[in-house]
Amino acid sequence: MPTNTYESPLSSRYASPEMLYIFSADKKFTTWRRLWIALARAEMQLGLPITQAQIDEMEAHKDEINYAAAAQYERQLRHDVMAHIHAYGDLCPNAMPIIHLGATSCYVGDNTDVILMREGLLLLQKKLVNLIDRLTKFAMEYRGLPTLGFTHFQPAQLTTVGKRATLWANELVMDLEELNHRIDTLQFRGVKGTTGTQASFLELFGGDHEKVRTLEKLVSAEMGFEKVVPVCGQTYSRKMDANVLATLSAIAQSAGKFATDLRLLSHLKEMEEPFQDKQIGSSAMPYKRNPMRCERICSLARYVIADAMNPAFTAYNQWFERTLDDSANKRISIPEAFLAVDAILEIYLNVTDGLKVYPKVIERHLREELPFMATENIMMDAVKRGGDRQALHERIRVHSVAAGKVVKEEGGQNDLVDRIAADPAFGLTKEEILAHMDPKAYIGRCEAQVEEFSALVVDPTRAQWASLLTDEQPELKV
To answer: Could you confirm whether 152 is annotated as catalytic?
Structure first.
């Protein structure tokens, strides 16, 4: 690859070959040619003077993109669509007079954009389905392993490692539902003419409205679309782009939440992302195990969330039937959002496939905090033996503050159990108090919730998208 020109890291470092192809020049311009062929074929079927020989000539050269000729024409014409019409015409001299007949630039530009966005969404759909499947398997494996829950990143009531994983998976389920909605509701721009009035096609067909309607149906069907925008100006509404990128932003938000949680858990040494045998965490500190994969997810997620503002600004600023200030922005913002989310999901899959859990560390943290969380049960036990609930509540408060001081100010161990056992107001032995220290007693319905989530939410998803499930392990470039 050239080293003396800028190249997007999304291409060289992050995105998958499949997504890179979808937004490649080859894919774009061969799709333009498929659209020109579909238009010519439909026009021929409806009686315009176009021959099968011309169609065959266009078909024969549809994948032969003569980039040098197109670049030369664009330098002269300052118009990319006209440049590619002339370049295609050089290869198809007999068909040249009927290429792009009656159409405007947005016939190929906008329709291609919708096609590429749909293909990009379908690729992301596959990755989301597999990610949900794998995260849920992880959740089921660890559904009964108690761990500290956190609110405000302060120890709270217990949860389980598996239950926490369902929180990550459920956000992806929400994203998949939204993504499927986007795929289902994407509309082809169709055959609408220069300002969306279809005037040029009405002229071609001598005022026959039915033939114009049929022309659009034939082209749309050949390109694989049932739904076509009912009305438009020169372009389809740019709200479509804004909606698609809002969906991509939502995926980035979910992935960023997961990655942030795992970075915090990595600091606690309770869970970690994969770390390869020869991987280096720091050039200066050899002992470091930085969560670089999750940091990359967060970095790319932030980019996508910000990038999603671009089509929103474009949508509100389109004047009347069209302005061209969408074009340069659209060429960058939409492909890069897809490439970045593709990279995010590739990394997310890689991390999920190699998640490390450290039960001993989790257990140690539980032992440090569980005495505080068990105080309500201890108090109820003492009340059953004749204690005064209000007085015991105050005694627990005093002992908890003192035990917390030992931990925080003196760096000692949590001695709350010993303090309560030594207090005659409770009338409990240390053994009786320790009986309340089983973490399983404080996880509520975590195990059942994970099992129900897997059975009621994820299993139907697995069944619906069984053809997309795979055991492939994503390999990261860096």
So the answer is: yes
